[in-house]
């Protein structure tokens, strides 16, 4: 162990006096057992003495004793009188240590004694380590003066009685703070100072307190108004949680003071209408029209009023700020990662999000409002927390508010709700501080909002406000909650509202008259009667530069043909630039070979494979078209099947270089991020990103296509239906490796049938490209067309390096995406009596067998875009062959899966009624199955041979194997 030469500056010199050596040693023993059991300054102090060689503790003890004996500093503060000095020096080391342990216990466990429940229904167990006896103290010690050590109370000594009174006020009143699980000492010291300096509560002036009452009046007033006007109609009211409104108002105004220009809010049902009217500034008259059924969607299905989003501008101390409430389905917490993606995109647009560092600035603030049961129970919350500090997904910290009703729907029994003490315990996984606060004390709630926001901007990390409240009317206004919670609702019926309690306190203190209190209620109700705006900071003529204009991307028909050509010499230049490495950069041998081969492909010397064409598409977009490109997913930098290699690593030092991000000084941003092992939250994040930045190609790639199963809720409730429900367009691209390669039921199918079942109203595009040129043009078409629709790509696996799946550079330079690829071999159309329609890799297996067997009567046509189905192009191909007798659809998937059930109605309509067309239309597929594929390699080969032979109309024995 190194020699100890000086103490940590934050530890008082008097504590290191020789007569305290035993005390220091005991404290150190306590620290070794549990670092959080001592104050943060002592933690910092002791950290420097940890032995790297497991030195015996006796040697460390000797070092502390030596340090104490060599102290030359005064043993006591200069402002301490002699009698106090004498009294203190007589205090035993064990008593002194006991006081320090008690202070530490309040910081760690004070929240368990805090008065959090407005209903006071559930008595909390006695906290043993907050008792005097637990620390070898007694009432006889209450008037003894002890050093306050690292207490932030402005003096070095205080009686035990005073210390306890302070700790009770700070940690055990209406705010219970959990922060000792935070691993960074700096954050813990900051939190202690913030709480203890303010004695756990800021003393608000009269003006501030009256403004809190005004917002409470608005919160309660809207719910009362709606209850009278629309009795029994669902509105998921905020009764019992009204303090949320002054809290969110404080957050918005204070964030504006930090220079924040945008705030994005994600929120489920409860209190959403209240937020819309009283904070975001939705006109109450518009809300009433929705209740009255006067508002009909101009197109699409529309959605219920408590799912819809909204945006507005408000004035703050820091200037005008844009507020956006994200659209949200009923799947509760799924909005959290969607919101994070939207925030990240806004930060990038404002150049407030570093490309190469895990850093975000203050320009955009994410706020997520949760329900207690959903916060604890929905796994996407955990996934979103896991993303919060990663390079690809950080947004600089999110402010979370849990509207804690203390009941999940009808479940209030602790043993049924969750396995943790608090619903917020999941947030501890990222060491986020948690502020539990009693919703019936609005000033504590507003103080918690201030603390949370200041912490977020200080440390760029998540923090949680757990707003303990209740539901006055049950889950919704048609529900009778006393049927399942009779004791709870017996208390609630007798309980004054939060506003009533607060107003009575202000009246009792002489800050408000009863007449003024009544006038506030009357004025708010009269404003609602007149249909006036009631948000208090609304900007009527907003600055449009604060948000993105989507008008250029709206109102277009979903056309297939689009010019995606790029000059061939320009493409060659991109290829050469991507092959240039920084000086001295040494690649792994196989990767170096890929780079060299790709250069030959991208300069026209060799045919291009999939990876070469795909990376040229990205290069052309960021340089030629100035389109932002973002690609995320598990292993996307290399590509699951080693085809992309957009991230290159120096084998000498492990550094990473992304050629596509360093093409030119004026290029658009290009980024690839290997994601955490998540599908649901990551896909939701990318959806949120894509709905926020129109001039972008946002790509999510599944490691295997079937992994998309884990994100089905995102597909169902956002990607497929977001436009028809909310008029929210999105250009997200999904690359889903799909193909039956004998790898079993979990690595074969991207569930093509599910996407096709969801297709309607031109809501998205589903393609099965089979050539490098096709993926190149599909990606370019997705970005350069002024149309934003999700693109679902059934992406190949074996075709990435298939000998026949290649393209010439000229096809990239001059072509476009073809929705149907015709028969490619030179044949006499009059000889063709059988047409095989197919998509994906099965085409090449059919092609090779047809060539080998000389089956000139068979034509093979690929449908590269399944939705929207290109019927005119398909009819044109069919009509080329006047002697057709049979048309078959051949797919690798089982009959009940894949595209057949979707295609069948279209094909029978196209083929059967026409007198000059074939009369036979039938599918060839694997037998219907509950699983996508077999796990037996032998059975897989047999099934593949059967469907190839069936597609060509021959027996298996005739195949050329």
Explain this structure to me?
- The chain is of the alpha/beta class.
- The protein has 4 domains: 1-148, no CATH class; 206-538, Thiamin diphosphate (ThDP)-binding fold, Pyr/PP domains (Rossmann fold, 3-Layer(aba) Sandwich), CATH 3.40.50; 568-814, Rossmann fold; 821-958, 3-Layer(aba) Sandwich (Rossmann fold), CATH 3.40.50.
- It contains 32 helices and 24 strands.
- An 8-stranded mixed sheet has the order 3-9-10-8-7-4-6-5. Strands 14-11-15-16-18-17-22 form a 7-stranded mixed sheet, with helices on both faces.
- α8 runs antiparallel to α18, α22 runs parallel beside α27 (772-784) and α23 (680-690) runs parallel beside α24 (712-719).
- The radius of gyration is 34 Å and the shape is elongated.
- Residues 1-10, 52-56 and 68-90 have low confidence and may be disordered.
List the helices and strands and how they pair.
Elements: H1 21-33, H2 40-47, H3 57-69, H4 82-89, H5 93-109, E1 145-147, E2 157-159, H6 160-171, E3 175-178, H7 185-197, H8 206-229, H9 244-257, E4 262-267, H10 272-278, H11 284-291, E5 310-316, E6 319-325, H12 335-349, E7 364-371, H13 372-377, H14 379-387, E8 399-404, H15 414-417, E9 434-438, H16 442-459, E10 463-468, H17 486-494, H18 498-508, H19 514-529, H20 568-578, H21 589-602, H22 610-623, E11 628-633, E12 648-649, E13 656-657, E14 670-674, H23 680-690, E15 696-701, H24 712-719, H25 722-726, E16 733-737, H26 752-757, E17 765-767, H27 772-784, E18 791-795, H28 809-814, E19 820-821, E20 834-838, H29 842-853, E21 858-863, E22 865-867, H30 871-878, E23 886-894, H31 900-911, E24 920-926, H32 937-952
GO molecular function, one term: oxoglutarate dehydrogenase (succinyl-transferring) activity
EC number: 1.2.4.2
Region (Disordered): 75-94
